[in-house]
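so im writing up the methods section and need the DUF4956 domain-containing protein record in one place, dumping it here so i stop losing it
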Amino acid sequence: METITFNDIFQSNILERMTSISIMDSLIGLIAAFLIGLFIYMIYKKTFSGVLYSHTFNISLIIMAMATSLIIMGISSNVLLSLGMVGALSIVRFRTPIKDPMDIVYLFWAIIAGLLCGIGFILLAAIGSILIGIVLIIFVNKMKIENPYLLIIKYQDRSIENSLEHIVSKHVRKHTLKSKSVMPGNQFELTYEVRAPEAEMSFINQISTLEGVNSAVMISYDGNFSA
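--- predicted struct ---
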């Protein structure tokens, strides 16, 4: 049985593979991935419409673009390494839950940009990222205008329910009663899902001045309701 010595390992073609990699091309690919990742970072920050902005998640988009580019440049010169890398990446799982579908879009965008930079299609990655950024800015800003809100009203007198319904229907484009709660001590709570421009939200002041209303709260509603 043939044994492998340390000298055999030393005389392998590792150094040849290292010299076959163009340092300049690698630097250009990584710098391009960084710049496109920075562009994704700015677009995400500008279009973010959630409750809590995560700076670390945004930074990870830049790193993901660069890391993907680095992986692609490493496996592009070796078929066996590429197969092993695919097998290794197949066991990777995201442990952090991603609630906003737009976050998945940005993750996929960063990976694709890094992949294109890694194989040398830098111009395609740049043009595609610019177009995607423009589309996101246009449509996400439009979505903010039509964003639904939750209107939570706490009151004591059931006789004002018709008045509340009249005020809400008069000042919003669309409203839906999500829930009605009856609590001890003759306390009631209504939760409406409403759609109204931010400039027309002054009606909540009118609701709060009604006799018998304890509080009226308007909060942004991203589709995940939690009591």
